[in-house]
Amino acid sequence: MEPNPLIVRRWSPRAFDGTAEVAPATMRVLLEAARWAASHGNTQPARFLLGYRGDDTFARILAALRPKNRTWAARASVLLVGAVAESDERGPMPNTEYGLGLAVQNLVLQAVDMGLVTHQVGGFSPDAVREAFGLPDHVRSVVVIAVGVLGDVAQLPEDLQARERRPRERKPLTETVFTGQWGQPAFPDDGPRPRRGGNDEGADGPR
Ligand SMILES: Cc1cc2nc3c(=O)[nH]c(=O)nc-3n(C[C@H](O)[C@H](O)[C@H](O)COP(=O)(O)O)c2cc1C
Question: Measuring from each residue's beta carbon to the nearest atom of ligand 1, which residues come in under 6 Å?
Fold first, then answer.
């Protein structure tokens, strides 16, 4: 029994095809998928900035990334900033990052369904984004999302090529799903599997 193939097929490559373009009509579908995400009290906190490779918005989002992320993200077809509106006319809104996360996951899975790849990036400067785009005080950028077409791994610097080929691994359910009391696995037969060995150290940002 496997999860839905859409979920299994999603991953975060760094090898983007630097010649591929993603049409605005496609991005509209992806952002429509994001729009229909659940949110606390239907407060809909998710906001996005959208840039296509070659335009000024893309260049400014790219410039806000950490240098290491910039090396591969420059070849994405689209860069999005995912942000949260933290308050509305009724005051502060709860669970805003949760709401953005749900919206982004919708977007990402929609992209997989359309044959695209995505890579979410926390390693960027929110201050640079605020300054470059004039974010209002109640809006905070949380993530950058690269969208595009899978490219040739050989185009990446060697250290990133090695990462790209590393098997994707997850903690077993025995470590994450409990019943009865905390620490008692709900699925005790889900034996330990190797963990991913410190894959993204440094790149994703502080923990
Ligand atoms: C919020 C968030 C921030 C991330 N930040 C970065 C980043 O700055 N640089 C990077 O290369 N990958 C980043 N990633 C990608 C993760 O490293 C990746 O999702 C994780 O290793 C699991 O791999 P998978 O997406 O292929 O399943 C980020 C992912 C998320 C969800």
Answer: 11-12, 69, 120-123, 143, 168, 199-200, 203-205
C-alpha span between 162 and 81 (Å, rounded)? 27
Q: Are residues 72 and 125 located together in one domain of the fold?
A: yes
117 CA distance to ligand 1 centroid (A)? 13
- 199 CA closest ligand 1 atom index: 21
pLDDT > 60? residue 192: no
Q: What is the mean pLDDT of the chain?
A: 93
Number of H helices, E strands in the chain: 7, 6
0.90 exceeded by pTM: yes
Do 112 and 19 belong together in one domain?
A: yes
DSSP conformational letter for 111? H
Q: For residue 204, give the 3-state DSSP assignment.
A: coil
